[in-house]
Amino acid sequence: MVDSLELALTNLLTPAILFFLLGFGAGWFKSDLTVPEGAAKTLALVLMLSIGFKGGVEAARAGLSPEFLKAAGVGLTLSFGIPVIAFGVLKMISRLDRTTAAATAAHYGSVSIVTFVAGTEFLRVGGVPFGGYMVAVVALMETPAILSALILAGGGAAGRQGLRRELFREVALNGSVVLLIGAFLVGLLSGDAGMAKMEVFVGPVFQGVLVLFLLDMGLVAARRLSAARSLTLPLVAFAILMPLASSALSLGLSLALGLSPGNAAVLAILAASASYIAVPAAMRIALPDADPGVYLTLSLAVTFPFNLVFGIPLYTAAAAALIG
Amino acid sequence: MQLSHRKKLEIIVEAPVLRRVEAFLAEAGVRGWTVLPSLAGAGDSGEWRSGDFTPGQEKRLIFALVTAEVADRVLARLADFFADYPGVVAVSDVEVMRGEKF
Q1: Of A171, A269, B17, B69, which has the highest C-beta tally within 10 A?
Q2: B68 CA to centre of own chain
Q3: Are B85 and A40 inside 8 Å of each other by CB?
């Protein structure tokens, strides 16, 4: 218990979290501090490239393991299943219309890649080993939640308008996922020899990029929160309690399948995270009537900061206590 | 200077459906158009700002000059589309140089 408290405190005092909080404060008090849009996009590219590449190299070292198939199975189950639970809870606690509730549920079933990046950094610093192939699991978990949400919403506009191809492109060929999986494959193929060439870029430089990116995320999250019009207390409670429930569910599945504590922690972090890039764009195509003021604000301005600051150490500690 | 009467179409749509709307224009016989980016805005679904992780809500402005007949075909097709999707369509009468191009 003391260990987990220490771990949580260590997380709070890392440059990544402190810069996120700096950005959040600056955004909340309407400072003119900004990360230029082009720079923010470049930082995101470096993050995806580094995390994908590192995962690929590690996966090449480990070889194909049955643990990967189990983790992928848990990930897919969660991505399909969490929206059903989230939808039921939202209908019970709020007066959201069916479409907005389904769209919000999709965000919680899908994943946030930045939360994954921050979470795996936390595990690396804490010396908790996990499989490099978890990068591939992230990509698998992006889409199923969207399908579940479409069923829950009863179809959607994309089917009526013949926009299925656009929907597919927006989700499956989403730039972040393409680069993440592409870099994973490059890492897998080039292995340790490739790592020797990329070391400085994906190693020491990575921390600085992550910190700058999180500063920007803090600014954006605070702006989003201060402009929020449709937030109610039950919705905010949902955005904090749903990640806890999802991570608990994920830990239960990992325990049942005998996954390692590190992989279980990564899956719990993924289950708890909510998408704010791929799914919102897909929802504008599939369910344009759903209110982004609800789903984007909950996912980006409440769940993301909660997971980053409190959730990641909590899920890691729970995985260690339950499985370790 | 010889000027001709044409219709100016200004269509604002969300970025993810841009390709679809461009396909409608091509099908309706529009010979050329220009797409412009957007910075920020507000509407039914709240405020949004380019770069604030609102990829689905960012808008694109499509600018096109067409004959009255082509404008009618475009509007007929867009009426169905905008039954489901948000957006803005404005048509105005303009005089253009080199009218044979539109």
Answers
A1: A269
A2: 15
A3: no
Lowest-pLDDT range, A10-14, A215-219, A309-313?
Answer: A10-14
pTM equals 0.90
Could you give the 3-state DSSP secondary structure of residue B34? strand
Q: Helix, strand or coil for residue B63?
A: strand
pLDDT of residue B68: 96
Place A226 in a pLDDT band, splitting at 50, 70 and 90: confident
Question: Searching chain A, which residue's CA lies closest to the CA of residue B14?
Answer: A284
Cβ-nearest to A288 among B46, B47, B84: B84
How far is CA A70 from each of CA A75, A133, A184, A312, B85, rounded to the nearest angstrom?
A: 9, 11, 19, 22, 40
Closest residue in A to B51 (Cα–Cα): A37
Question: What is the mean predicted confidence (pLDDT) over A118-125?
Answer: 92
Q: Please judge whether B16 and A170 are an interchain contact, meaning their C-beta atoms are less than 8 angstroms apart.
A: yes
Predicted-complex ipTM score: 0.81
Tokens of A11: 């997380």
A41 DSSP 8-state letter: H
**Residue of B15, B16, B45 with shortest CB distance to A293:** B45
